[in-house]
Amino acid sequence: MLEEKSDNINDDLSMAKQKLNKAKKLDQNLDIEEDKQEIAQALIERGVNLVQADKIEQALIAYKTAEEFYPELKIDSESWLTLCLRGTLNKQVNDVLFACENAVKTSTEKDEIELAKGVRGIAKALTGNFDDAIKDLEILISNPNILDYELKTKFKQWIETLKKGENPFTDEVLEELKNE
């Protein structure tokens, strides 16, 4: 099924390329860069929708295809964070860790950066990188604007568990976080 979805994205992209090339042949002065950017952005939007449906592998294909089709595309931090978060909570952390890094890099506001670091912290814990996970999660809980009291208390407990060399992010905890 993944190959089928991959083929659909590639078929759509191939058709778009053909139409743009045909238009360019008809009018040599035609600037198709804006059209290419719009197509790439549509692929990212498709990817975000796939992420929200927990179709992480298909979303990764859409993100990658968009970047290959229009390398100048600037994917926003929210799109990266969505991929990072949902992929992490669906235990596909090795596939989405790059998205976590990109979410941190592309965030511009303090709260946004700290939220991205918090999500990256969960991902790092799942990869066994407890020291970096603790650092990221401590940044998250230090921000008074992101977590409510109950969730902040849970994160503090999870940090203490990480400090003991144990991963607190069990399947049950990840499922609970999906519903937050």
UniProtKB/TrEMBL annotation:
Coiled coil: 6-36
Recorded superkingdom: Bacteria
Protein name in the entry: TPR repeat
Keywords (A to Z) from UniProt: Coiled coil
Higher taxonomy: Bacteria, Bacillati, Cyanobacteriota, Cyanophyceae, Oscillatoriophycideae
InterPro entries: TPR-like_helical_dom_sf
